[in-house]
Predict the 3D structure of the following.
Amino acid sequence: MIMIFAVLPIVRRAGICCNEMQADKKKAKQVRKKTRPPAAETPAKMDIRSVARLANVSIATVSRTINRVSTVNPKTAKRVWEVIEKLNYFPNTQARSLVSGRSRLLGLMVSEITNPFFPELIQGFEDIAVEHGYEILISSTNYDPRRMSLCIRRMLERRAEGVAVMTFGVEKPLLEQFAERKVPLVFVDEGPDRPGISLLRVDYHHGIRQGVQHLAALGHRDIAFISGPKGLHSAQSRLAAFLRSLEECGIDADPEWIVEGDHTMEGGIEAMDRLLKARQRPTAVMCSNDMTAIGVLHTLYRAGLRVPDDLSVIGFDDIHIAQVTIPPLTTIQMSCFELARAAVTALRAHVEEGGEPKRNYKIPTHLVVRESTGYPRGTMLHLGKRGGKAKSAPVVAGIEARTREES
């Protein structure tokens, strides 16, 4: 008993020491907590409130800055954007749409994406749209009416503010769905004559006339043409421009040398096979697009014919791959960038300016000479034999000079 009572004071003193140590630790922890810098916010926690706090502005100011409202002071807007960039903050576009009532989304409908022309067009459309604070929604119809209906539905569900229709065969009932919701539309060459629609009118004749004159100046008189599908308005416009240009140069069109294609490489292969079986082979071929021309080059290579020594070839569009075909393709350039810029400009005019803006936008074309065109074999002999079917070289040169003046 005596030993137990002797130990108790020691235990009490030990307990007191432990309590004091715990208290000291607690105080030290509180001090560290007060002096510790605030933890960096994780991306998951970052929101418009974080931006407003660090930029020392209201949430409303941040919202107006993000939506590029012009009434925000430029210095304030700059400070807000610096914080947004520092935080690597990404605004919630869906929330912005709900607040502002605008999706800032532009739609682009194309026929297909396997043809290199359309990816180049899409790239230009996106670059220009993003530059002006818009996003884009792309739909490919693949020439399928049912898929076209689904494409239009997607555009409406996502609240596209305007749609560029770079395809054909859109039926009237489907277009009415856009009209009912007052969605502005842009078409190539032709479209409904009603408010809210702009047209990109391609000047096919200017570039194709340059191409025909170029061939005529080299001495070609036997010129074939591979068109696009008969039901495609742009393909028929190119054929009409070709026939008119032949007439201007005094060259007769041979119906046997007018062959329908389908704007694909395979279509070009098949069409050139048919031309090679004609009673008389042409000395030059113009194509309704570059993919057709690439098919033509392939067929001529397989047939053991050299371009341009045995036959000259001209395409249309001037896609990037035209620069690296063998030989590099002479073609009519219809700038994808100009087409895309005009489409975005027209849609923005409808969306931002209101009223009834400009309806028609002209898209220029011009000849780009590379290495797939040259003098036909026996040029001087043929010039004499064709007689009245061709104008003299001075006349052709005069036409080319007038064309350069018009450009």
Remarks:
- Confidence is low (pLDDT under 50) at residues 1-8, 34-39, 386-400.
- Residues 2-35 form the longest helix (34 residues).
- The radius of gyration is 34 Å.
- The longest strand covers residues 105-110.
